[in-house]
Amino acid sequence: MDSVDVTLNATAVVIISLPQARGKMVYYYLRMPFFLHAKKLDYSTGGREHIVVFQEDEGKILDIQPGDKVELAWKGARVVASANFSRHKVKKGEIGLFKEVWQKRSLPDGQVVEVTELARPESIKAIRKKLLGQHLSYKEIYSIIYDIVHNNIGTTEMTYFVASGFMHSYSNEELYFLTKAMAETGEELKFPGKVIADKHSVGGLAGNRTTMIAIPIIASLGITIPKTSSRAITSPSGTADTMEVLSRVSFPTKKIKEIVRKSHACLVWGGSVSLAPADDKIIHISHPLSLEPYSKMVVSIMAKKVAMGVTHLVIDMPYGPTTKIPDLATAHKIKKKFAYVAKRFHIKLNVQMIPAREPVGRGVGPALEARDVMLVLQQKSWRPLDLEKKAVRLAGILLELIGKAKKGRGKQMALEALRSGKAEKKMRQIIALQNGKPQVDSEDIIRNARRMRIFAKRTGKIVFINNRSVDEIARMLGAPYDKQAGVYLHKRFGDRVRKGEKLITIYSSSEDRETLAKKALKRIDIYRIR
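Given the sequence above, the corresponding structure tokens read:
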């Protein structure tokens, strides 16, 4: 049994030292507890934070301030939450609980709970230190990440933590510390074998669904490549959103391991398992202000690779004026950060910095991107060749990195797996194992969608395509939540176009959404024609 050290000081403050994961210690300074009746509230933070609500006057009597941390205890359960106040939602003697507090704990209304105010944890000191531009140790960084995962600090503190990365860049060693802490404070999946491969895109380029082609290519050659992907946050579709058109993507750890054992691969949503859970919370803080330091992007990606036990990794890093990474110079800086962190974890890495002047493939949005993927895997004559070419290139580089193919031969090996039908067969096996319909045909995917064509207003040559505008219109149409919503591009960079010729087709399940997108297209230019 873990030991608990208790000290009573002269001001009647109890100091408790509790063992933390991996031999670390957490120190809380607690006032003497008080007792209140629990009241369930129909409010939620979306799972990002635990909130409790005190009656306003009672909060003043107890000397608790908004945002203060309190610990609730009942029948062996313990929850740390942030304090909020209301004059009418709770009465004196009650404590209101957001859904995150009571739902998973089966806490009944009226249950007496023990409430203890907590002093600020050590992680706050570490955040303050970083805001002042000082270097953080692993212990300090671990304290921040641990407290984020366990809801020991709230939204305000996390926001300051995210902002500190903009104000003062992290050193390479701090990036390593952050990656290690994020991986260690979540679930770690380990797969048998000396080689665990992965291919990852940093995002920011519309329609860039090469992962869903590269993974079945690699797996069809007998290489283990368990892929956990994210859902879209600011884009019309993430890999998980697109794969969800074809199969389920949310599975417990045991099922993921079973899928990988049978097929050498999976294409699942990383949020269904607790890989680097602090990352998801930090993303939600970053999103409203569109804050994502490149260093945070490196940590976010690498922490999940470490948690998955990846040994060989290819990173697709598109850059261009309307992508996440604006130019080659910035891409080189980010590449160096990836290389440092990968080396510290003994991961063999290849970063591909690829210029991007337009979306990859024709479709942007979950169903349209899934259709493009299946067109390539099925080798249909009207498949998007740019998507095929890029996926084969990246798969070939990974095959050479692993040592499966000799240098210069990886691309050909990957292409043979695609043209022979082995990759398609592997993808259908993965779809079946993930409770999808393995017989799906590319043309079945968008058969029932509403569609509207948009035509060119002038004759000329396409000299620019705005990735951000494509994303904006696709999201306005309802992507990624409406799987059928999105934009299909009929014309590519450098094409000649005549007035009245089709430029794009927009897809949606909602007439109202179509109307909004059509109005937006009067103000937002996807193409620049000269």
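The CA atoms of residues 322 and 467 lie 6 Å apart. Try to locate this feature in the token string yourself.
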